[in-house]
């Protein structure tokens, strides 16, 4: 069972879903919804600043210039294309090139507001829908719809300055009102990512290009959150079926959606951002599994496949016209220890001894698409430092730590006070069968070198959920933390591992109270070191995905490709 942590929000979150605070809609902060309409409000504001011509001048222009005046009215006042009949023709402009990318799985819906999972984000985020801030290939927030932002000294006020001249793909203007409205909708309707916005006090549009967010408590990674689903800016005037259509401001628009089969993205000629599409048409073709996608790549049916399974690498390596590149990810596969009071692993020395017995380098190599990770923070997250040296593979140290609990004679064991003893029974390793027999057997063999006997039980997801998460009937388990910025989930005493640490709890509170990036980084490092030392889990490995592309294809993203695949820079030749 995949434990979905904080992709944009964790099911094991330490905080309840946010309720709309009373101050969220101050009278001077948000343009009224009706009446006047949002369109009229925008027109009135532009009139105050000289952006809208008087009615008399407009009529003269209309008489003199005819169609030109009508077009100006449509653009400036009604925020729509003056030539709707030509939309199809406009969509055909741009680069006259096309590419096909093989993916798995397919999104169930195009409604990125409500559809959970990575498939819809992978397809639409950064391509069709833009966020207030963009997310770099190093997983850091950078300029997006907002060209700049600043944070107050107390970390409670964020001011965003938007780029000018932005429009949605349907021709509607994108300005500060849309940003405010989008955040309203996300929180009020509990769209994906809303839970992480607990702490929003107010959101104000100060003119057409400035947005001010005020918090009731610090959210030190707010800028990063606003580069994900929580920060998507929607068209407040669009009337579409979000399940099958899209109205974003990104470098692509949706040309065609064949549910479960393919999604065709077309260069957006109205895009005015910094990441204009270099390819005219990109087709995302979906397959039942990654092996079929790799097979299509080998046959020349697709131009690129992100996140190639390690088992398919040799097949693709045999093709001279295919380039394989290994990137970085933040999906972490862990061996979790049951730290309950009645468990042998409630003693940190047993957990630490087990970690010394495990050879993580060998496990990562066996996986083929992974790297070593010695602590809770991967290289793409703030607060990362290499902690693989804390518990390197060292059987002698493992035996030294475990000798307190076990004699060298396999028939004699020393009891823990009021607890179990090694040798009463093998340690129960219970994990979902999707991880396969080989991983469990390798862990068993390695732990045996530290005189920890292991009995393996592979179960289906439902059984794992009941036995491990609900009943906590296990000694060790294998699970995945597949999110970024999720170190807090391990500190949660309600997590099924039953790990508790007053020191870690206090450090996590300090992390949450960080007022700036420097404090945030430093406090995360301290927390990560404490958690890694306590060893509630062993970090078996972190994902390092492989990306396959035709040799003449450039600009393919390589990091985080399982959930974030911005394609504007991808081109042929």
TrEMBL record:
PANTHER family: PERIPLASMIC BINDING COMPONENT OF ABC TRANSPORTER, PERIPLASMIC OLIGOPEPTIDE-BINDING PROTEIN-RELATED. The chain crosses the membrane at residues 55-76. The lineage of its organism: Bacteria, Bacillati, Actinomycetota, Actinomycetes, Bifidobacteriales. The keyword Nucleotide-binding does not apply. Residues 140-503 form the Solute-binding protein family domain. One of its GO terms (molecular function) is peptide transmembrane transporter activity. This is ABC transporter substrate-binding protein. It comes from the Bacteria. SUPFAM superfamilies: Periplasmic binding protein-like II. One of its GO terms (cellular component) is ATP-binding cassette (ABC) transporter complex. Residues 1-11 have a biased composition (Basic and acidic residues). Belongs to the bacterial solute-binding protein 5 family. Keywords: Membrane, Signal, Transmembrane, Transmembrane helix, Transport. Its main location: other. Pfam families: SBP_bac_5 (PF00496). Residues 1-45 are annotated as: Disordered. It is found in: Cell envelope. InterPro entries: Peptide/Ni-bd, SBP_5, SBP_5_dom. One of its GO terms (biological process) is peptide transport.
């Amino acid at each position: 069972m995949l434990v979905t942590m904080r992709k944009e929000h964790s099911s094991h979150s330490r905080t309840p879903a946010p309720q709309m605070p009373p101050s969220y809609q101050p009278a001077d902060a948000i343009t009224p919804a009706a009446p006047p309409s949002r369109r009229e409000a925008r027109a009135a504001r532009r009139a105050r600043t000289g952006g809208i011509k008087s009615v008399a001048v407009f009529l003269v222009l209309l008489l003199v210039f005819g169609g030109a005046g009508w077009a100006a009215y449509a653009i400036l006042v009604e925020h729509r294309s003056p030539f709707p009949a030509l939309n199809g023709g406009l969509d055909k402009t741009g680069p006259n090139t096309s590419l096909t990318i093989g993916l798995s799985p397919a999104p169930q819906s195009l409604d990125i507001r409500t559809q959970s999972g990575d498939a819809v984000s992978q397809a639409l985020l950064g391509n069709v829908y833009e966020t207030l801030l963009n997310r770099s290939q190093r997983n850091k927030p950078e300029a997006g719809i907002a060209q700049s932002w600043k944070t107050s000294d107390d970390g409670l006020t964020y001011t965003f300055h938007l780029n000018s001249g932005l429009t949605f793909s349907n021709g509607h203007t994108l300005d500060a009102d849309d940003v405010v409205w989008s955040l309203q909708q996300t929180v009020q309707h509990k769209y994906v990512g809303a839970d992480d916005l607990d702490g929003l006090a107010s959101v104000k549009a100060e003119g057409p290009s400035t947005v001010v967010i005020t918090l009731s408590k610090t959210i030190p990674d707010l800028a990063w959150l606003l580069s994900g689903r929580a920060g998507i800016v929607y068209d407040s005037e669009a009337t579409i079926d979000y399940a099958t259509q899209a109205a974003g401001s990104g470098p692509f628009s949706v040309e065609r959606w064949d549910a479960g089969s393919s999604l065709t993205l077309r260069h957006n000629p109205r895009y005015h951002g910094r990441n204009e599409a270099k390819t005219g048409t990109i087709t995302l073709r979906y397959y039942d599994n990654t092996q079929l996608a790799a097979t299509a790549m080998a046959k020349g049916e697709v131009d690129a496949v992100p996140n190639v399974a390690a088992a398919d690498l040799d097949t693709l390596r045999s093709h001279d016209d295919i380039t394989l590149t290994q990137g970085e990810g933040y999906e972490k596969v862990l061996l979790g220890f049951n730290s309950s009071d009645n468990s042998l692993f409630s003693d940190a020395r047993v957990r630490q001894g087990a970690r010394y017995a495990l050879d993580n380098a060998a496990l990562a190599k066996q996986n083929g698409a992974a790297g070593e990770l010695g602590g809770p923070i991967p290289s793409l997250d703030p607060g990362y430092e290499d902690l693989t040296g804390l518990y390197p593979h060292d059987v002698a140290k493992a035996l030294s730590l475990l000798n307190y609990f076990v004699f060298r004679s396999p028939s004699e064991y020393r009891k823990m006070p009021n607890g179990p003893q090694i040798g009463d029974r093998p340690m129960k390793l219970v994990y979902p069968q999707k991880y396969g027999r080989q991983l469990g057997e390798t862990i068993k063999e390695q732990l045996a070198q530290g005189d920890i006997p292991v009995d393996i039980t592979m179960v289906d997801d439902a059984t794992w959920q009941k036995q491990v998460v609900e009943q906590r009937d296990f000694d060790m388990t294998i699970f995945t933390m597949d999110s970024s910025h999720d170190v807090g989930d391990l500190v949660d005493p309600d997590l099924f591992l039953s790990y508790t640490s007053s020191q870690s709890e206090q450090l996590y509170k300090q992390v949450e109270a960080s007022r700036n990036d420097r404090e945030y980084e430093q406090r995360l490092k301290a927390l990560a070191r404490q958690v890694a030392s306590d060893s509630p889990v062993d970090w078996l490995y972190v994902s390092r995905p492989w990306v396959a592309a035709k040799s003449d294809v450039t600009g393919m993203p390589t990091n985080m490709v399982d959930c974030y695949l911005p394609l504007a820079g991808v081109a042929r030749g």
